[in-house]
Amino acid sequence: MKQVIIIRNDLKMGKGKLCAQVAHASLEAYKKAPFFNKVKWENTGVKKVVLKVNSEEELLELWEKLRKEGLNAVLIRDAGHTQLEPGTITALGVGPYEDERLDKITGHLKLL
Q1: What is the value of pTM for the model shown?
Q2: Which residues constitute the domain of residue 102?
Q3: 39-95 pLDDT, tens per residue?
Q4: Three-class secondary structure of residue 33 per DSSP
Q5: Does a structural domain hold residue 95?
Q6: How open is the CA angle 64-69-72, to the nearest 5 degrees?
Q7: How many CB atoms lie within 10 A of CB 90?
Q8: Residue 112 maps to a domain
Q9: What distance in Å separates the CA atoms of residue 94 and residue 34, rounded to the nearest whole number?
Q10: Secondary structure E strands in the chain
Q11: Measured between alpha carbons, how far is 80 from 88 in angstroms, rounded to an integer?
């Protein structure tokens, strides 16, 4: 079981902003995950993987693929109080789900 967070690398966010977006994606994905997945994940180390994409288009394509597979993926939009314009899509969160289900769609991505 793991959770996958995907960040837009093209935005060149500062470290603090990037960390905040990862946290938002992790929490929102957790809220939408199936109950039994949460329990199993919590009992097996709460593994998380942070990956990167190079564009909004690439992020949206992954979001669509995850949703078509029946996975509860969430897009994170920035409020625009600091570095980015309001509504900028910064990240995608999904899981926890079984590693194999997530790797089928995100396994080709590079670590952040």
Answers
A1: 0.93
A2: 2-107
A3: 999 999 999 999 999 999 999 999 999 999 999 999 999 988 888 889 999 999 999
A4: coil
A5: yes
A6: 70
A7: 24
A8: no
A9: 11
A10: 2-8, 48-53, 73-77, 89-97, 110-111
A11: 8
Q: Which residue has the tokens 């992020």?
A: 59
The CATH number assigned to the domain holding 28 equals 3.40.1490.10
Q: How many domains does the chain have?
A: 1
**How many CA within 13 A on the CB side of residue 91?**
28
Would 84 be classed as within a structural domain?
Answer: yes
Do residues 111 and 101 lie in contact, with contact meaning Cβ atoms separated by under 8 Å?
Answer: no
Q: Which residue has the tokens 């288009």?
A: 57
Calculate the CA 87 to chain-centre distance: 16
Q: Which residues pair with 112 in a beta bridge?
A: none
- pLDDT tens, position by position, 5-14: 999 999 999 9
Compute the C-alpha angle 62/67/23, nearest 5°: 65
Q: What angle do CA 62, 51, 26 make, to 5 degrees?
A: 85
